[in-house]
Amino acid sequence: MRACKSSLLRTLVLVLLLLLGAEGAKALRVKVVRVIDGDTVVLANGKHLRYAGINAPELHSPEGPPEPFAREAYLRNRELVEGRTLRFEPALRRRDRHGRLLGYLLLPDGRLVSEVLVSEGLAMACYYPGASRYRERLLRAQLQALRQGRGIFGSLRNTEPYYIGNVRSRRFHRPRCPRARKIRKKRIFYSLRQAFEAGYCPARGCRPWPP
Question: Given this model, what pLDDT does residue 206 score?
Fold first, then answer.
C-alpha cells in the first residue's frame, strides 16, 4: 500500500513538472520584428536581443566600412528570424553591458539561430561569462565551418608571425598590442586558424582580425 502511494506521488509530481515545463516553453516564445545585424534583433516588445555566445562581423564598424561578411550575416539572420515567432532561451547572464537581452533563439527544427550562422561562417563562437550553455555546440559548428572554409573562415590571412591568446578571456591579440603585454596567462597561436580552432575570438583592442 505504501509502495502504491509512493508510486502515485511520483507520477503526480512528474505530470506536474511536465505541465509546468510546457507552460514555461509557451511563455518563452518571442516575435522578432526587426534584425539589426548578424547577432542582434528587436523583439515585438521593443527590447533588443543579442545572441549569446557568438559574435558576427560588424555591419557598422567604427573604422568605417562593414567588416567582411557583415552584410551576408545580416541578410541570413533576417532570412532566419524576421517576422517569426520563435522559442527563446535566456542566457545565465540575462543582459550585456549595453542593457540588451542575452539569449538564444531556436528554430522549429531545434537548431539555434546562432548555430546556423556559425556553421555557415557568418559568425564566430566566442566565450562570454554566463553564455556557456551551448558553447560546445557552437564550437562544433565553428570547427565544421573551418574545415569547409565557409564564410569568414575561408578568407583567413595571417598578418603576424604569431598571436597571443588570453587564457582567461579566450581572446587573442597582435603580439605588439599593449594589452597583450599585460596578459598573465598566455597561449601562443601561430595562425588565425589555430586560434579559432581553440575557440578564441579576436580582441577588440589592436584587433588581429580582420586585417
Answer: 84
Q: Which residues of 66-75 are buried (b: 16+ CB within 10 A; e: fewer)?
A: bbbbbebbbe
**What are the pLDDT digits (tens) for 106-165?**
999 999 999 999 999 999 999 988 777 899 999 999 999 999 999 999 989 999 999 999
Active site residue 50: yes
Choose the catalytic residue: 58, 67, 115, 120: 58
Q: Could you confirm whether 95 is annotated as catalytic?
A: no
The answer to whether 89 is a known catalytic residue is no
Candidates 50, 76, 135, 174; catalytic one = 50
Class of the CATH domain delimited by 26-153: mainly beta
Return d(Cα 13, Cα 19) in angstroms, integer: 10
Q: What is the C-alpha radius of gyration for the chain, rounded to an integer number of angstroms?
A: 20
Catalytic option among 76, 100, 135, 174 = 100
Q: Which amino acid is at 145?
A: A
Cell of 154: 575561408
Q: What is the DSSP string of 23-59?
A: HHHHHTEEEEEEE-SSSEEEETTS-EEEETTEEPPPS
The answer for residues whose C-beta is within 8 angstroms of residue 202's C-beta and 6 or more apart is: 124, 171, 172, 208, 209
Domain map of the chain by residue range?
26-153, 156-202
Q: How far apart are CA 188 and CA 190, in angstroms?
A: 7
**3-state SS assignment for residue 90:** strand
Q: Reply yes or no: is the peptide bond before residue 66 cis, omega within 30 of 0.
A: no
